[in-house]
Amino acid sequence: MRLVILGPPGAGKGTQADFIVENFKTPHISTGDIFRENIKNGTDLGKKAKSYMDKGLLVPDELVIEIVKDRLSKDDVQEGFLLDGFPRTVAQAVSLDAFLEERGQSLDSVLNIDVDTDILVERAVGRRVCKTCGASYHVKYNPPKEDGVCDKDQGPLIQRDDDTEATVKTRIKVYFEQTAPLIDYYKAQGLLDNIDGKEDIDTIRKEIVEVLDGKNN
Ligand code: AP5
Ligand code: MG
């Protein structure tokens, strides 16, 4: 399956993506993770991306589109993928459509995690991620077994640089201005599957399984 997971910052895209990847054996492509990996490794791309990410702004389209096209050209994603955090502007979505069309491919679903803005800040600010493996937790809604320690590899849990309240608020504003128009864009293509994101993690998981099982049959 070729999937996109869409939703505002802190909606739960990454949390559900981890589950979809495991359950449906689909490679996960997160542009945010690609940038964070580049920042960690001190690459030029990482330096450029960081200057935007720290302010809560989007990395310029031309930079993001090239990275995704390159990733989507690899062998392991020819049968399917889950895009998380891309596309994020109409220009990115148009490029993705054109790229897939050239290859005789198309998307199967755009899972839109729909959450009220008031709970997004709490979700993002309470998030903790493992410094070594990237696993994500929440201090209240998805706590690790031991405080500050990753369940999977015992790595230290840290806060993302862009998870301060002020930056999260900018990211939400940017989402409404530049990314939310994609809801109508994909609705018009008959690809949008709305998921009620205010439910708990397990309930959302079940809703996604129902939607995706429906596509498989
Ligand atoms: P990115 O990494 O994509 O961040 P984002 O879109 O802001 O989304 P998040 O990762 O913050 O949230 P999420 O929806 O994955 O939530 P999560 O599952 O972790 O992008 C970061 C930056 O990179 C951007 O600002 C931009 O600068 C740049 N960038 C990336 N892609 C780009 C692109 N295509 N174009 C341009 N720039 C780009 O959950 C959040 C927390 O809530 C966790 O703690 C989790 O445990 C908890 N939680 C999850 N679900 C629930 C639930 N149902 N109930 C309670 N708690 C929950
Ligand atoms: Mg994420």
UniProtKB/TrEMBL annotation:
GO terms assigned for molecular function: AMP kinase activity; ATP binding; zinc ion binding
Keywords (A to Z) from UniProt: ATP-binding, Cytoplasm, Kinase, Metal-binding, Nucleotide biosynthesis, Nucleotide-binding, Transferase, Zinc
EC number in record: 2.7.4.3
Domain Guanylate kinase-like: 1-213
Residue numbers spanned by region LID: 126-163
Residues covered by region (NMP): 30-59
One GO-annotated biological process of the protein: AMP salvage
Cited function: Catalyzes the reversible transfer of the terminal phosphate group between ATP and AMP. Plays an important role in cellular energy homeostasis and in adenine nucleotide metabolism.
Annotated protein name in UniProt: Adenylate kinase
